[in-house]
Structure formats: C-alpha cells, structure tokens
Design goal:
Helix content is 33%, strand content 9%. By secondary structure, it is of the alpha+beta class. It has 2 domains: 111 residues, Ferredoxin Thioredoxin Reductase; 47 residues, Rubrerythrin, domain 2 (Single Sheet). The strands form 2 sheets. A 3-stranded antiparallel sheet has the order 4-3-5, with no helix packed on it. A hairpin with a 5-residue loop joins strand 3 and strand 4.
Length: 162
C-alpha cells in the first residue's frame, strides 16, 4: 500500500465518520477500494468508483465519482453501495456485505438522453429534486441523501423541491 492510499484512507475515515456513514469493516476490501480510487484519480483526475467502467469523457462519468450518485439508494435498499465501500450499521455489524449490490447505473446512451440540454421543462427531469433546508444544496435523485454533503444535515432536513 502506497503513502497516497494510506493518507486517503485516513481522510476518508474522517469524512465518513463526520458524515454519518460507515466504511466496510473488512479492511482488506476497504484498502483495495481506496487504492482503486487513488489510481483512478491519477488516471482520470477524479476518484472514479473502482468497480465501474469509465466510458466516454469525464462529463459522462460524473455520476460515478465517489461517493457516487447511487450510494444512498443502494444503502437504503441493499445495505451497501455497489462497490461495497460504504455500508449501513446493520451490514457493518454483520462483518460487511454478503452479496453484491445490483448495478443501478443507466447505460451511457440513457445517461446522455437524460442530460439537460437547452431549455428542457423541469417536468421532463428523470428524478425529483430535493433541497436541503439548512444550506440550500440541491440533489436530483430518486430519494434525498441520508446526509447533506455540504452541511451534514440529516435526511429529514431535505424537502422535495421539484
């Protein structure tokens, strides 16, 4: 394990703890995933999920910059994110994920169709928009995040905006 991976692991532990999330308790898996994030940052300039394929250009892959857009829905439904880096308290107490979380990321073609180009009406957005009532952060996703990535407010502080 290189120094960048060790440093990033320490940074992620602090961020995750402050944000109310948990990392996979299996240290071997967690270190391998963080090492993958570090390598992908060197390759692509962003910490792209090491368990997903980077296809197209960076604008086509912003949804899989860790933490990915799908993390909160994966945690709510399956107890861990797709790669298994983030887990719920229940999954953590059981020692980590016992099954693979299914991929929910749409194909590149479907993602390109859903981009906001020009003056598209809000009603055509593929997801509802949630607003943090504390800091105003906006999130377009199937559900509001469990914790605001800006101010760390809990999910209950989000309201449906659109």
């Amino acid at each position: 394990m290189n120094n960048r991976t060790i440093n990033r692991h320490e940074e992620i532990i602090k961020i995750v703890k402050d944000g109310g999330y948990l990392l996979n308790p299996d240290q071997e898996i967690t270190i391998a995933l963080i090492d993958g994030l570090v390598k992908n940052e060197e390759r692509y300039g962003e910490e792209i999920c090491p368990c997903r394929l980077y296809k197209g250009d960076m604008s086509d892959n912003l949804d899989i910059v860790c933490p990915c857009y799908y993390r909160d829905d994966d945690l709510a439904e399956f107890g861990s994110c797709f790669c298994g880096l983030f887990v719920t308290h229940e999954v953590s107490s059981e020692g980590g994920p016992t099954q693979q979380t299914p991929e929910r990321r749409p194909s590149l073609e479907d993602r390109k169709k859903s981009k906001n180009i020009g003056n598209i009406e809000v009603s055509t957005l593929p997801y509802p928009v949630y607003r943090c009532s504390v800091c105003g952060y906006l999130c377009a996703n199937t559900n509001a995040p469990h914790v605001c990535p800006i101010c760390r407010a809990k999910k209950e502080r989000f309201e449906r905006f659109v």
